[in-house]
Amino acid sequence: MTVENMTVQSPLESSSLLLAPKVVLHDHLDGGLRPQTVIDLAADVGYANLPSTDVDELGRWFAEAANSGSLETYLETFAHTVAVMQTVSALRRVARECVEDLAADGVVYAEIRYAPELHLERGLTLDEVVEAVLAGFADGEADAAHRGRPIVVRALVTAMRHAARSREIAELAVRYRRQGVVGFDIAGAEAGYPPSRHLDAFDYMRANNARFTIHAGEAFGLPSIHEAISFCGADRLGHGVRVIDDITLPPGARPDDLSFDGAVLGDVANYVRDKRIPLELCPSSNVQTGAVADLASHPFNILARLRFRVTVNTDNRLMSDTTMSTEMQRLATQFGYGWTDLQRFTVNAMKSAFLPFDERLTIIDDVIKPGYAVLLG
What we know:
The chain is an alpha/beta fold. The protein has one domain (14-376): TIM Barrel, CATH 3.20.20. 46% of the residues lie in helices and 13% in strands. It contains 16 helices and 10 strands. The strands form 3 sheets. A 4-stranded parallel sheet has the order 1-2-3-4, with helices on both faces. Helix 6 packs parallel to helix 7 (126-146) and helix 15 (339-352) packs antiparallel against helix 16. Catalyzes the hydrolytic deamination of adenosine and 2-deoxyadenosine. The active site is at residue 218. Keywords: Hydrolase, Metal-binding, Nucleotide metabolism, Zinc. Its cofactor is Zn(2+).
């Protein structure tokens, strides 16, 4: 299958990439703090376990510690960020700065996820956590609009897959659905914690016509994808990178090829593509956690050229020392993408957002397409 409108161009300039309208669907609030904010908040709450109180050293520590090749080890870095996000003021500041940083990077729509159950150590209730984060998002949106970089930000509330609060968190998602929470997610180590353990939560979301994504196909492979879509009914797949395990490529095929004519899709891969189930791919993070060996072998290009609904995401900007512009540039450099390709990935993401259809269409027609029209000349 040849994808005629995917192009090959010279690497795109960083300054131009900053201007490109972007959409991020998979970005963790507790994985995107500014190092200085971690230091400030640690001092505020008396948290003395930071690896460093020097801004540059702390930033490097997070990136190096996360670069372990293991999802479980990668997740251990969050102990420090979660520890300092236990008050209303801290949550509101982190949420506001998250929006400011995304807007400065040219993001026009974002869905930011976090696990309310992780922020209760100092006595907050689940509702107080959600309300603090939503207030911070509103602060950030107002600041971004004032600076001439408008952005729309919505929340996904996440349940930890090793815990037993998923139904409670699903109810939280529905309770705040008119106030900025657009969906539900489960996250955490995949091995030993299949998504089917949380069927009650997913049934509740479906019964209330609410949307959800599931972290699947990152560390545990194809079986987790099968469970997420077949048993749980996921609207999107968080990562989903291991869907490649259900695709047989033509002999001699390379990840950076321009076409994969003759590729044979298994039942799971066919279902994901036929149903247009979005893949929330996070290239840098996928390398860090060992989901793929390196960017050159990442299946992003294979999936894109086989017309899966691929989207580009950051996952954790602090741990991966990345931005949406950086992720796009890395992909463009590795696989030879041009503006037309990046526009398609961005429209893919906006089509897949948990925002109402008319609002999605407005952002696509009034923001994304005109923005890329300028870049395309």
